[in-house]
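Structure, all two chains, one model.
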Amino acid sequence: MKKINFIFGVHNHQPVGNFDNVFESATKQGYEPFLDVIERHPNIKIVFHYTGCLIDWLEKNRPEILNRLKILVEIGQAEILTGGYYEPILSSIPDVDKSGQIKKLSDYIKAKFLHTPRGMWLAERVWEPSLAKTLSEAGVEYVVLDDSHFLSGGIEEKKLRGYFITEEQGSAVKIFPISHYLRYAMPFAIPEETIKYLKSESSDDPSTLLVMADDGEKFGVWPDTYKTCYEEKWLEKFLTLLEENSDWINVMTFSEYVKKFPAVDRIYLPTTSYFEMGEWTLSAKSQFEFEEIVAHADTSIKRFLKGGFWRNFLTKYSESNQMHKKMLYVSQRVSELASSGRIAIRQNRGIAIPPLLNLLYKAQCNCAYWHGIFGGLYLPHLRHAIYKNLIEAEVKSEVGSRKSEVEVFDFDKDGQDEIIFTNKIFNIYAKPSYGGAITEIDFRPTSYNLTDVISRRFESYHKKVDIAVMKSESKKLEVIHGVYYTKELELQKYLKYDWYNRYSLIDHFFHPTTTLEKFSDSEYGELGDFVNQPYKREVGCSPRLQSGVSKANRKSEVVLRRDGHLWTEKGPLPVQVVKSISSSKSDIIIGYKITNNSSKECEIWFGSEFNFAFSNPDDENCFYKMEKRCEKFNTKTCFEKTSLLKISDKNLNLNINLMSSDLFDFWVFPIWTISLSEGGFEKTYQGSSVTPNKKIFLKPKEMFEFQIKISIEKL
Amino acid sequence: MKKINFIFGVHNHQPVGNFDNVFESATKQGYEPFLDVIERHPNIKIVFHYTGCLIDWLEKNRPEILNRLKILVEIGQAEILTGGYYEPILSSIPDVDKSGQIKKLSDYIKAKFLHTPRGMWLAERVWEPSLAKTLSEAGVEYVVLDDSHFLSGGIEEKKLRGYFITEEQGSAVKIFPISHYLRYAMPFAIPEETIKYLKSESSDDPSTLLVMADDGEKFGVWPDTYKTCYEEKWLEKFLTLLEENSDWINVMTFSEYVKKFPAVDRIYLPTTSYFEMGEWTLSAKSQFEFEEIVAHADTSIKRFLKGGFWRNFLTKYSESNQMHKKMLYVSQRVSELASSGRIAIRQNRGIAIPPLLNLLYKAQCNCAYWHGIFGGLYLPHLRHAIYKNLIEAEVKSEVGSRKSEVEVFDFDKDGQDEIIFTNKIFNIYAKPSYGGAITEIDFRPTSYNLTDVISRRFESYHKKVDIAVMKSESKKLEVIHGVYYTKELELQKYLKYDWYNRYSLIDHFFHPTTTLEKFSDSEYGELGDFVNQPYKREVGCSPRLQSGVSKANRKSEVVLRRDGHLWTEKGPLPVQVVKSISSSKSDIIIGYKITNNSSKECEIWFGSEFNFAFSNPDDENCFYKMEKRCEKFNTKTCFEKTSLLKISDKNLNLNINLMSSDLFDFWVFPIWTISLSEGGFEKTYQGSSVTPNKKIFLKPKEMFEFQIKISIEKL
């Protein structure tokens, strides 16, 4: 009789920073009913991966789930996989953190489940060949990856019926390919389909194996799957079918399989993830083209079609890069402290946990660093959690080590120097090469990055918004990768695209036809070439040159200069912008000098734009205030001729005062992004743009000088 | 006026182990006349990379070439790139060797040319993302790679007009994309074509850059290119055109460019090399399919088509893997010795060179580890050079450290244990999981791997042998990647394919219809399931279990057993083969016990096959000898009913005696492979198969016992 081995693995995860009610409903809709069914079928072996983020929440809120898991391990029904504790993209974090994250989850599994994990779930299956050594050295014997890159390397699909072995510098690790077919069939086709497929692949070779391992959220948490899996009993039926066919389907664990059978072959996999990830990491234009090509390609061609590489989310989204480079920066500081032995240790379940490391590890959770078809990077609460942990770790890592007040180095790894000011209240990141803009303002007392605003970018799926709106009335249960539901209608009008990054301290010279409406839609005329063009750091202000100056006299001030042009109808007009950035206690002080360097008089319309990551656009307790006028963050409006705009965000516990040394108009408008989520298209408030602006008449060689002060205090 | 920057780089290399006359003619045909022309155009900036293998030869044989190069550097005309000294595929060697190889070449360049190299030539442009850190830490600022993977990541071709910047764990390195168009145009189209292309790409952006960097052998060494480049003066004309158009073509070096211009953007490249390499590393069948798809794909699709990953040459060719894993094994021993500080140092030009490290580095030269359209792995002299250096390094690394006589571990990283015997004369590698075969016999007195024979495999280009034979009369100057010349006619009859690896100690049970002719063509009937199936190591012989035994009594012997079957017409016949391998001084002693485990009597025809890497098939001083009969290695013949076959190879300085305890027939035949080289299809003698065989009548449960002794001595 032809037989087949079958491994069923689920990976359960909720990102760091996700809302408590999401953890709760995911547990109720997915993790818990899944366990209920599994417990009723003690003969069906199952492999689980729970990420540390989820484990932390369960320990606190639903510890009995973990205890039930422990029993499944005890009776030999379940195998538990390790992984990076807070589910980082392993290749994107420093080596020392790679092993630290794995060790943390392995230690937990050993202590909690009295089970030594042998295999690992690799976050998002983002594989790089050098990982074999890292994993092997962390005690990982095998890892589970997608079948697509085995195929593209020239291996026949029929050969993917076991595991393979790879190595880096002689350190070996085994790789199980996940069946693409089963990943799409379970639970999206009737249970009999999977049994039928297993039958068709059964063979006389006793080692024949198929693996289905994928997100556990497919079983109850993704839209409509609760109905399928539990109300319509997909899972119960499937496990019953496995039992009924146990004479030829041998459901087993990875550890049982490797004990019994040798590797199919040696293999080297390139940088890879699941096929869809390769689409998402492409630039939007290429993504669209790629999807078209894939849709029309037959299997023989498709196996050689490859999209992009995970790490290019860091080039696709500058916000992702900013977060990633800050993570590397903080990791470096934490490592230095750890290697000096001056790191505090706490005990938990007999495991030594340095709280500082834990903050760093939390901040490496992958979800906020990229975006595919779930919210990811577009979700402010996820990004804010990353920054919160990073800033806390940063502040804690300074204890005992004096940090210089101004650092000048290539922070974001684009080959150009950035400047970081630090005092007790702020970290301020300035980027001379890009408009002399401020890319980050961390308010240290609440560990909040106040400028964490995502630019509005074209996403390839935006072309489908119309279709989605039409379809939103007639939902059907389909594979989440194929169909887009729409949560809200009338999203089309929010599809506006920024031509520059929504940093702060952006220097605009508006065309006379500009209106707030046009500006907020990024459809206005920019006369200047300052917004995203390089500024020079004034040499006299180089902190390096201050080394001879006594500490008390050193100024934490940087002066940036650009000799640019206004591109008027009468020809280019040379204009110089010199701006200084300094901070004093809870104030950030910006000094501006704008000089008409032409021989003609001119009227310029200047605006300095800030983008703040406010909490809630509709909350009445979060508002702008000018004299007696009060407006919510959702407002698109102009506060006319004022020198003080007060901003209050009670959720962030922040009061922000924007003061100008002259009377300015203050334009404010909200930034909405349209992105995909499990539930379809979604409109997300990223923050608001605040632009003090003013028309100024300048004679030849005349200079206009003014100051903007930003005071930020805890409520 | 629209302008363009242009960088012209050449990479000059000859592999470790190449024939002296090849070095000589390459210098005369390529490296020297190239310099002659360059020297006549002192205003044309040029970038050179000379590999250490070539530098070593030039230092010894043509030192004035290097002195002329030094002058070009002194006058600022030339920039010199560093690299791995002996041109290893950097990602395939241990980290410590990566930095060691780069340091060695950088140190040489500093000492010889008084020039600190800032950029690097990456061997075969085999990139892996983790290399950014390695390179950055080795002081490399920039590297030159192919444009294809920039495109596939979603970057528009028009954007590839400068350099990009990447990072690993915060360590950054710059990457210059090489223009695919120019790589094919130079020197294969008339010089005016390149100028025309530069013109079409010139722009108002002063940073616009195109890079052509490729093998220097294209300029004189590849077939017909001497005629083009020097007789027909392609190079002279091209440089003159560059001079004549110097008002808009700015020929510069990489270091000049990075000083002047910032990076175009940040980028992360996946595992990559040039496009063609991705084809070659695929399995032959996939390669053929891929080539067909590429040939019919338009540009929009082609950018997303990717072939395989360099490291899979190690899975495509088991011989490549054997060499690679031996390299890792020796590197590990050398590293241990180096870290213990017990490594000898020699001085050369004020640079400290540990000779042991140098042997290891030489053995990492990439060419013999893979095969594309040049000989590479198929060339015995290149492989022999790798093994010679490895074995010498291995022997030297044992000084002072006692090596165990038998090691059992997963040497080749397939998940199964191999066994390595070592005494003063031999290293013998046995592979229980594959027929209990011997995969390597190193004769230590001459540092020679006697079993280094390549199996005859189907290569995708074999389908083109017929066409090539037809075309060979009408040669034209075309791009080497497109057209195959044929060196010899009647190659078709040598296209025979092995169904098992040409190891030694392979246990055959021949079908009664087998003849030497059929056997040598690998087109015979194999009744047994022993050739490539797993043997068990007898537990009593495990070296681990001998730990309680006194040293003098320990037997360096391993016993392997397989209970297999002969698949006869009358049904499967259970047969047991037990074979022991031991060595004593210059003898390898094989003991065989073959048992008929069935209840029927049977006649079996058993043969134990060895494959030896002899030097020369046609040399009269290299021969088999049985009594008075003497035959060259080219011979396909049977030495009937003998117990002694003498083998003598004067080029290898070896005498080999094969002795059997019974009278056997000794079949011998040569192994020819057909592979591609610069000059077209090429027939290569890999060695000869030697198979003592005998028909044996066995009663039920009867055992036949015999011995084969291989004595190897220096002439």
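Residues 161 and 209 of chain A are 5 Å apart (CA to CA).
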